[in-house]
Amino acid sequence: MNEEIKKEDNKAENKPRKFEKRRPRNNNNSARPKSDLEDKVIEIRRVTKVVKGGRQFRFAATVVVGNRKGMVGLGTGKAKEMPDAVKKAREAASKNLFKVDLIDNRTISHDIIVKEGACRVMLKPAKEGTGVKAGGPVRDVLELAGVKDVLSKSLGSSTKINAARATLNALKGQRSPSHVAYLRDKTVEELR
Fold this sequence. Notes:
Helix content is 32%, strand content 31%. The chain has helices at 2-14, 82-95, 136-145, 160-172, 177-183, 188-191; strands spanning 38-51, 54-66, 71-79, 98-99, 112-116, 119-125, 132-133, 150-156.
């Protein structure tokens, strides 16, 4: 008889009760996987909105995020406090990540000129050991994308956000040799 009672007690212990079916709360941040993304603040501006009661000041931040291995993204955020604006921009950038096709994990595949607003950005592939010959936001985007050897020139307007967007569009516009061969219905060897 005692054995039957023990068996019933064990069954009762293993079976969760109705009120115990809640999900366990996980408040520690160490359980989340650490992201290998780095971020760089390109620009922080103070913007003003004029209303009936006076001026409302806010901060607008532009942040580029990347893992230096071919993933990069750009985001913007606005808030009343500067750290909040940077945080919002970082989150927006990490949602807008895309993969960049790199040749030998170091350079882009072909020349490209992209226009964004009044800003034009030209990118050219370079030999090994050249480094990133770029300045300002173009350099930040290229370094976080993992490009190690490239030549660039910014033409027209020097607006930072447009230069960063133009660089991102130039990286999106890159076509790998295998992709071009697929589009032309040829092999990579036939293209050379």
